[in-house]
Amino acid sequence: MDKTTPKLSIITVNLNNVEGLRKTLDSVACQTFTDYEHLIIDGGSADASIEIIKEYETKYNGVKDGLYWVSESDKGIYNAMNKGIMVAKGEYLQFLNSGDYFYNNNSLVLFSELTHNNPFLIIGDDMIEDENGIRKKHYHPDRASIFFLMTGAFAHAATFYNRKLFKDFGLFDESYKIGADYEYYLRLFLLHKIEYAHINQPITVFTTGGISGDKTFELIRRQEREKSQLKYIPDIYLNDLKTLIKKSKEFDSLTNSRLIKYAKGIRQIIVNLRSFK
């Protein structure tokens, strides 16, 4: 990369989410790490989003001439994200969509500290914030085990992609409505054996509510996750994994009920034997 290339391209996708967009843009403008460009891909919002973007132009503190925005109709969130990829210039790409925001002003410093060895992926932890403002930390493992890939989820906003990944392994699959990021993780980890560097601290905050709490959303999410699993995991292994996960959940249930009672009973026997002595 030449000297005019920013270390990071932050890509923000938005559609009629003016309050979420404001929160996202304010968190970017407060970052102490400034070797970034910011690309805002708006889907033709009818609310005050464009006014917020124009206001943000005066707050932007990244690389010179590094603020880009467009407002036009698209074919969905992953079409918009792919648009951002096509115009991005950074060594790494991050998708911080409207409503999500950085955990604190030094979040990108933690990212920059892990870029020296040029890993293909850098993934941080995040905080999940509910509609009441209550936060819970979302932890990630240091490696992408098959069990985590089947049952967990990476923090998409806290993922930094080396731009080479999109060149070598393609863009997001736009046939997905909400699960193309999950498909891309499986593509990278299972098909291409990519590893990642882990930031064991919160990088971003993901806000729940809205569509993510809708029953239809949850149904589509499950269907698209299964579609991706069938794509990358052979049926014979997939069935075994599902059985293992089911048994693991049953064991957890036992751990929280019968086994605890059993352990208490054993403990009482030991207490009785000690008193007998």
Automatic annotation (TrEMBL):
Keyword annotations of the record: Transferase
Domain Glycosyltransferase 2-like: 9-141
Gene3D superfamilies named among the record's database cross-references: Spore Coat Polysaccharide Biosynthesis Protein SpsA, Chain A (3.90.550.10)
Pfam family, one: Glycos_transf_2
Keyword Cell cycle applies: no
Molecular functions per Gene Ontology: hexosyltransferase activity
Domain of life: Bacteria
Protein name: Glycosyl transferase family 2
Upper lineage: Bacteria, Pseudomonadati, Bacteroidota, Bacteroidia, Marinilabiliales
